[in-house]
Amino acid sequence: MIDVVIYSVFILALIAFSLSPAIYVTNRLSNKFVFIENNSTKISILFAILFSSIATFFIFWF
């Protein structure tokens, strides 16, 4: 049970640190697609979760 709590806190920290690159990617894509421009906040959060999940996977894998 404590492992789940540690893992969750680690994921939340990585989401906070990956929010800046996610916003950058979303801003770059919003210049090309109207849908991304209209939903930029939601897509930035999804990118941040994606980046942090990938980072967590590689950190725990190696």
Automatic annotation (TrEMBL):
The keyword Transmembrane applies. The chain crosses the membrane at residues 6-25, 45-61. Keywords: Membrane, Transmembrane, Transmembrane helix. This is Uncharacterized protein.
